[in-house]
Fold:
Amino acid sequence: MPFHDDASRIACARQHAWTAAAIRRIEADFNRSADTHLIPLALPGFPGIDIYFKDESSHPTGSLKHRLARSLFLYALANGWLHAGSTVVEASSGSTAVSEAYFARLLGLPFVAVMPASTSPEKIAAIEFHGGRCHLVRNACDIAAESERLARGTGGHFMDQFTYAERATDWRANNNIAESIFRQMEQEPHPVPAWIVCSAGTGGTSATIGRYARYRGLATRVLCVDPEYSAFHAHYAALSQGRTPPEATVPGSRIEGIGRPTIERSFIPGCVDAMVRVPDALSLAAMRHVNARLGRRVGGSTGTNFVGVLRLAQAMRARGEQGSIVTILCDGGERYAHSYYDPEWYAAQGIDVANADRIIALAADGEDALPDLEPVSRHVDGVPDR
Structure:
């Protein structure tokens, strides 16, 4: 039998030793990293409603995806999917690949990111800075199949964030993003948020927060905001209304890191209490507004999240409710100098910047200025009406 063979036993022992050492390196890296900040943002037009940003841009790789990449590597190691010399392959629009390249280099493993050709050059440079290689494809729908092909060809491992994000994260505790938020809110006027607003790329963040809140018996609800070109909102709406979800694909999202052309397995609708769809023009206007208010550049997904915050704040005020709303500052804006912070990009996309900026400025000042964002909920009392 194989377990009686000396060579097999030696190889097995070496693999166990390598895996244990790899996990220790990742855990040591975690111990060297401080938790991310929770930043308040005052909105005088909404008295009694406190707004906070969980600043995930302060991770070593600059985004929320640092948490996901760490969890994916630990999950793959614990499952015996990674070995010394394994080529790690990931399908990513950028931020997850940046973070996975970081952890691959930490373990001495080669890394290949398969991404759309439209990915910002700043993200490509960040991946290469961490020792990764970028493999660009024309069609965003092809990145998973191409990743599987490359992994087979190299004898490596396809991380597959869109399948494993929700199950790789320890949602009960272990300093996941939900536990961190609730711990940091303990001394605030409204320590248990009425809502946490997040957007979906894999769906891992919404699954982690929704599961943790229910596990701890907390009243916090999860609003998932979806960008204009994404399949998640229509899928969720169909399920919530008892209809068969559509199978059609949509164009690739212009808001990098969130939105998907098709539904991904890591998106768990039952972990989300409500969803809204945010036009890209408003997402990017909100990005610019947050940039001005915080004095720092943020990415487009943070803007999408902030539109959801404004939608909830308007609804809570209309109902005479007070409380706190927490959302995610997903990444910094430095990676988008050639897109979201370039006027020529807006002209090429046909986006009306002035009108969108006016709407967000009015909404942030307390005016009922937001258009209908197609709110849908699993519950009768889901997203409050304005």
In short: The longest helix spans residues 6-32.
